[in-house]
Amino acid sequence: ERSPDVKAELTKMRILPLAGILLSVGGYEVYENEYKNSKLPGHVGDFRGIPNLPHTVDADRASDGFSSVSPLTTTSPSFPYFADSAFFDDFGVSNTVHRLEHWRQVVASQVEQGIAPWGGSTRERDVAAANCAEALAATDGENYYLPNTTFAVAAALRWNPSAFAIQSGENYRVEVRGPQDWVDNSIRVGADGYDAHYDSVSRCHVAAGRCRPYLKRPLRCRVGRWYELTCGIGNFVWKLQEAANGTARIMPLSEDEFSNTLFPVGANLTFTAMHTGELVCFANDNDGLYYDNRGVLNVTVTRLSWPPIAKNVLGEENPPASFF
Which domain of life is it from (predicted)? Predict the structure, then answer.
């Protein structure tokens, strides 16, 4: 008769290999990069022809038993936080149509300017610029303009997207045209914001001639002024995974992506972009003080380095798209 300890060890020896086999059969690894998931059942090149739709199954008699469901569906525990609907807490319903529409607007801006998607290689940037230059040449200079857009920046919102694509190395101007202002509690100022300092006599932080306790809190953009128009460059929305029939997985912004791209703008700023993405702006305030902010600024962003220039490996400028 074996002792209880020996029986336990033998049981472990039998169970562990079996568990390893089960994990290797059903296991998968999830990546945020959609291209690493391109070979899941139902991918674009799947010879069975089933689209990568959530919960779509090939159910005919010749079925091989695979469904087109990837591990990145909204019902999967591996799927990142996806819902932002006001009804989600009560009903579990999230309307993400607005994200998909916004993503399409940004893509349209990229095409208009000859900008490669975020993360694109040098070759992709050249191809995008060459295609845009070729399209402009076909118009014989008619309707020449600098790409631009005007968008609203609400003081009470932490992020205000422009749907305007920015590419590193290109020149841009961001401006607030005409007299416009917004209100921080009781202080009415323009896009340049206001200064604050510590008064050692009154022993408090002072702005607009009086002590204001909230001024001791840190600003979102430390190098800017209070309530100054401030912007960052990144992905306000981003595509996690492609899917058929308009069900692509479009995710909300990741704030840590913007943390190193923030810069004060004020009423007018011309700059050379150091990052690629979408221009997103806000009133520079403390993260916990947006509840008493009021007002909206109409902000215009214009690309100045125009038309786009592409250089291939031979150093030629604006080659035809067929070159690539």
Answer: Eukaryota
Report the distance separating Cα 151 and Cα 161, nearest Å: 8
Taking Cα atoms as reference points, which of 70, 71, 33 lies closest to residue 50? 70
- Model confidence over 159-198: pLDDT tens digits? 999 999 999 889 999 999 999 999 988 889 999 999 888 8
- Mutual angle of helices 122-137 and 97-113, in 10-degree steps: 70
**Phi, psi at 223, each rounded to 5°:** -85, -5
Domain boundaries, the chain: 147-303
Quick one: which of 270, 290, 300, 302 has its CA closest to 182? Answer: 290
Tell me which range, 31-35, 238-242, 306-310, is most confidently predicted by mean pLDDT. Answer: 306-310
CATH code for the domain defined by 147-303? 2.60.120.430
123 sits in which H/E element: helix 122-137
Burial class (CB within 10 angstroms; exposed 0-12, middle 13-18, buried 19+) of 29? exposed
For the cut 70, the answer to whether the pLDDT of residue 1 exceeds it is no
254 versus 146: which is more confidently predicted?
A: 146
Checking if the pLDDT of 265 tops 90, the result is yes
Of all helices (H) and strands (E), which one includes residue 91?
helix 88-91
Token duo for residue 96 = 């993400």
DSSP letters spanning 198-221: EETTTTEEEETTEE-GGGGSPPSS
